[in-house]
Amino acid sequence: MKILNPLLAALLLVVAAGGAAAQEPVKVRVAWVVPIGNWASMIYQKKDLMTHFGKSYVAEPVHFQSTPQMITALATGELEIADLAYSTFAISVENAGMTDLRIIADESRDGFDGHQSGEYVVLKDGPVKTIDDLKGKVLATVGVGAALDIPVRAMLRKHGLEDKRDYTMIEVAFPNMGAMLADRKIDFMPTVPPFKFDPRLRSISRPLFTVADALGGPTDFIVWVARAGFIAKHRAAMVDLLEDAVRAAHYFTDNENRDEILKIASQVSHAPVSRLGYVLTKEDTYRDPNMMPDLPSLQRAIDVQHDVGLLKTRLDVAKYADLSLVKEAAARVNK
Length: 335
Hints:
Elements lengths: L5 H17 L3 E7 L24 E7 L3 H9 L6 E4 H9 L6 E10 L8 E5 L14 E4 L8 H9 L9 E4 L2 H9 L6 E3 L7 H6 E6 H5 L3 E9 H6 L1 H18 L5 H12 L25 H13 L16 H11 L1
Parallel strand pairs: 1-2, 6-7
Antiparallel strand pairs: 3-10, 4-10, 5-8, 5-9
Helix pairs in contact: 9-12
């Protein structure tokens, strides 16, 4: 019996181990913040639709309290796909210096194809009847530079009103805004699902304007982003992941599947089905079944972000997009 040289035997073991490692599925952590509102909280409840899951990749939905935490996680290699609003994406590139971020897929759009646009409301019986009446008033925001903050600044600037000089902006968490409006501690607030459907809020408030009014039309609000290096290293697995995500998006946007969709929405949100009638209807934000971003509307929103002074320079969105992956993924699903 021929005995292998010990050095050669060791080398063969290393090669074999490397080959086995190469077959391991790529781990991809996918961020989400809002249950139902963010795809990753929903679509991975339907792994039976995902033909590549566990083979070329394994997706791990990761909950974050806010998008700034996602930026840190991307920077430290603790997150592979973030779902960023247009405002956070631009800040990540400019302020965090993450010029290797690439837009790879779409998540939701505001005001597109007859779907709801985020509303800004005031009291029905309050002193604010027009936008000009906001002078001297207290306005609620979820945070300076947030996706729902920028449209307010843009709209009020059109009416000659500037923050601090003409009105006071205070940061308030969404769950607390309605009570503060009812108590007249604020005069104005943004609303988004599910908070906008609170019966008490609807009984005391009325819309003053919408995000679409302020930004000049429908807007691509939230996109999936990843770093260019990770995409280059794991392109095949990323296309497989997006193929499965697109297949799931087709399922969730098909009204024939509504009963199961609402059950899943109830599970992830811990809300009864009876309160979720808006989910994935015209009263919800638009979800493109092929997860294809609308770059022109995204560009328009980021231009507004610059115009109100929250970006130093204009950002060319097309330079930070790699749509080849989602195009290939959608082509597989739609063939």
